[in-house]
Amino acid sequence: MNENDIELVEGSGNVFRDFSAPEADLKHAKAVIASRIISVLDDRGLSVRKAAALTRFAAADFSRVRNADLRRFTLDRLMKMLASLDADIRVTVQIEGGEGGNEGKTALAT
After folding, report:
1. pLDDT value, residue 86
2. The domain spanning residue 87 has which CATH number?
3. Structural domain span for residue 46
4. pLDDT at residue 108 above 90?
5. Quick check: is 81 in a domain?
6. Dihedral angle at the C-alpha atoms of 13, 97, 74, 110, nearest 10 degrees?
7. What is the pLDDT of residues 56-87, one digit of tens each?
8. Number of domains within the chain
9. Residue 32: which pLDDT band, with cuts at 50, 70 and 90?
10. Which residues lie below 8 Å from residue 41, measured CB to CB, with a gap of 6+?
11. Can you give the pLDDT at residue 88?
12. CB of 62 within 8 A of CB of 41?
């Protein structure tokens, strides 16, 4: 294989959309929030049990987030988990869409 055999394609910033996953924007938003939860746990040196003791969420919930098993979580619930760990966090959701709001992008900043 030589460098002529490789084609580089720039992604959109949303890997789920790039691979045409259903509900790509929702999955991306959940992944971004989960990433921030993991960062807070790591920065504060919290185990899932310690995080559970500080919040009203179960240790199993934090374990699922750490393992990127986000299917059971709504975006709202993940945002509440993050807020319970870091009261100073600010989450902004910006929706850009076409007619009816079914097309376009969703941007999430934390």
Report:
1. 83
2. 1.10.260
3. 15-109
4. no
5. yes
6. 50
7. 999 999 999 999 999 999 999 999 999 999 87
8. 1
9. very high
10. 47, 48, 51, 62, 66, 85
11. 83
12. yes
Domain for residue 45, yes or no?
yes
Q: Identify the residue whose tokens are 């992604």.
A: 11
The alpha helices in 1-110, defined as continuous H runs, are: 15-18, 24-44, 48-54, 59-66, 75-85
Q: Is 104 helix (H, G, I), strand (E, B) or coil?
A: strand
Question: How far is the C-alpha of 75 from the C-alpha of 102, rounded, in Å?
Answer: 18
Distance separating alpha carbons of residues 58 and 55, to the nearest angstrom: 8
CA distance 110 to 4: 39
What pLDDT is attached to residue 74?
Answer: 96
pLDDT at 52: 97
* In a domain? residue 6: no
Which tokens hold the place of 25?
Answer: 């924007």
Report whether 82 contacts 40 (CB < 8 A).
Answer: yes
Measured in degrees and rounded to the nearest 5, phi and psi for residue 86 equal: -140, 95
Residue of 36, 16, 1 lying closest to 106 (CA atoms): 16
CB 31 within 8 A of CB 68: yes
Does residue 4 form part of some domain?
Answer: no
